Amino acid sequence: MSDFAVTISPRFYETDALGHINNASITAWFEVVRVRYLESLENSDFSAAKDWILASIQVDFVAETFYGNDVVAKITAANVGNSSLTIFCEMFQQGKLTVKGKAVLVYMDSAEKTSTRIPDKLREQIAAL
Amino acid sequence: MSDFAVTISPRFYETDALGHINNASITAWFEVVRVRYLESLENSDFSAAKDWILASIQVDFVAETFYGNDVVAKITAANVGNSSLTIFCEMFQQGKLTVKGKAVLVYMDSAEKTSTRIPDKLREQIAAL
Amino acid sequence: MSDFAVTISPRFYETDALGHINNASITAWFEVVRVRYLESLENSDFSAAKDWILASIQVDFVAETFYGNDVVAKITAANVGNSSLTIFCEMFQQGKLTVKGKAVLVYMDSAEKTSTRIPDKLREQIAAL
Amino acid sequence: MSDFAVTISPRFYETDALGHINNASITAWFEVVRVRYLESLENSDFSAAKDWILASIQVDFVAETFYGNDVVAKITAANVGNSSLTIFCEMFQQGKLTVKGKAVLVYMDSAEKTSTRIPDKLREQIAAL
Known about the structure:
The structure is a homotetramer.
Chain A: E1 4-8, H1 23-41, H2 48-51, E2 52-61, E3 71-80, E4 84-93, E5 96-109, E6 114-115, H3 120-128
Antiparallel strand pairs in A: 1-3, 2-5, 3-4, 4-5, 5-6
């Protein structure tokens, strides 16, 4: 896939007393890029945020992130299971890898409130990106 | 009124690179004490968060707040208008005044989605506290 | 002055259970535009965030802000006192005024840790913007 | 080990438009309990937050967390390596398991800014808790 990328400008309130961006803010950024990616798949048949439940996240803090330079957050891979979608993310600041993330989402039948098979059309969109 | 108070333990991620608690976190704490206060008025006839719209806030940062010691956030006064409620808050850390806040809320008729007169029962509860 | 503006894309985690952007997130956005504005004044003689202390903020929530459309946050005026700077901000979503903010900052002598007169060079920059 | 536990009252601004507590807030809570745990080990020879670097976190969102009831966040295990410490956390709301977390921290020599062997005294404290 070609990378899906979002540029994030660190905010001063996202720093902490150690002088860098706090890990909780970085994990929140992972939601930003993840939701944008899901929205990019969206069409009239499905709306992103309500169709997916976040099952788990893993974040590796490879290097510190600092205030003052933009961060590029990329979706580097998206693996489709039956009802699950695993999204891989990498973040870079000044060209340096700072964060590696992995999220597992489950596709929901909003009427039944149960997990359900990811529709073919959506599978194609994920594969195409 | 006797003060209504909530104790808040500053969280590390609420600090910023200046080494103190960031002002955005403190403003968020003001929501915590305000909502708890409104919930304390709540009974079967009204549910707090949905009945009030926040019209404005003012926060004076009297002194820095630091990580490592609890903050006591007090509602010091609540003035009832026709459909509006003005809530005054003070925060203290180690006995020192750090923050003074003022919020204006408007009571809503949730069915009509318009502001409406604060019910008498609720006025009594506010006066009694 | 010509307006200084920052575009903010609301993030999903900045919504709350009432379905709109939470007031604490909006107040945090006010910091984003304020700090960017101060940084735009910055030169080799002074670094923005450490030279200013936030004395107070006032935020009027004129209309709800929603997820899904960008917000334009503008600095509409900046009034210089002796050691204080009052910054006025307005936020718009889809052309509609949603937020009016006002912040009072105090210029600090970082060595002495006391408030000090805003330097002439900085006054000129503020006036010019 | 006997569990180390922190009680967290969900805050209204920690909810999102899906009506539950947002995953970014829950990940931030994990920092709260983790830092408190590290501080409980602290003595005059070491100060918690500055001696540890967060290398990675994993969070499984087992069930939704809601506003309105306290969450109990427990450290259920802590495994010491040479310079690394793996902390396991579980969160419960109304007795129901909602979150399972795992964090890997690395002990730092703050002067040298490199990872270093966790001191014996600290190992004993971790084992004893």
